[in-house]
Design the sequence.
C-alpha cells in the first residue's frame, strides 16, 4: 500500500472518530506502523476533524519527527503507541479515543475491556479500551 493511501485512511478514521463523538476538541490520536519501521502519527493540539494528510507526522521508533510540517509535533501519548508496537509485532495501528461508553464505565467504577478489530486494506487496526478507576 502506498503511503498516500495510508495517510488518507488515517484521516478517514480521525474524521469518523470525531463524527461519532469518540473525541472532542483535541482529544485522541492515531498512529500506523509503516513497512520500513517508521510510523505515521497525528499531531498534538489539533482536532481530529481538521486532520489532513499534510498534517500527519512521520516518526521513528523513539518518537523523533522525521517528516512533518513545521511546528507540528506528536502527542506525549505517542510513547504509549510506540510501546504497543514494541510489545506486539501483530499491531500495525493504534487508535486512542474517548468513546462515551468507555467513559461511562470509568465513571461507574467498572472495568471492561473491549477489543474490536477491523481491516483497513492490508493494515490491521486494533482498538482496545480498558478503563480502570481507582
Sequence:
Amino acid at each position: 500500500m502506498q503511503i498516500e493511501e495510508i495517510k488518507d485512511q488515517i484521516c478517514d478514521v480521525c474524521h469518523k472518530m470525531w463524527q461519532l463523538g469518540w473525541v472532542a476538541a483535541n482529544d485522541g490520536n492515531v498512529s500506523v506502523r509503516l513497512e520500513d519501521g517508521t510510523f505515521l502519527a497525528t499531531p498534538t493540539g489539533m482536532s481530529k476533524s481538521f486532520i489532513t494528510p499534510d498534517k500527519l507526522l512521520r516518526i521513528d521508533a523513539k518518537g523523533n519527527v522525521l517528516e512533518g510540517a513545521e511546528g507540528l509535533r506528536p502527542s506525549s501519548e505517542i510513547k504509549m503507541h510506540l510501546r504497543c508496537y514494541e510489545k506486539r509485532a501483530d499491531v500495525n495501528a493504534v487508535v486512542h479515543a474517548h468513546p462515551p461508553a468507555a467513559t461511562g464505565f470509568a465513571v461507574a467504577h467498572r472495568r471492561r475491556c473491549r477489543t474490536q478489530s477491523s481491516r483497513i486494506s492490508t493494515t490491521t487496526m486494533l482498538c482496545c479500551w480498558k478503563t480502570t478507576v481507582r
Q: What stands out?
A: The two ends are 43 Å apart (CA to CA). The longest strand covers residues 113-120.
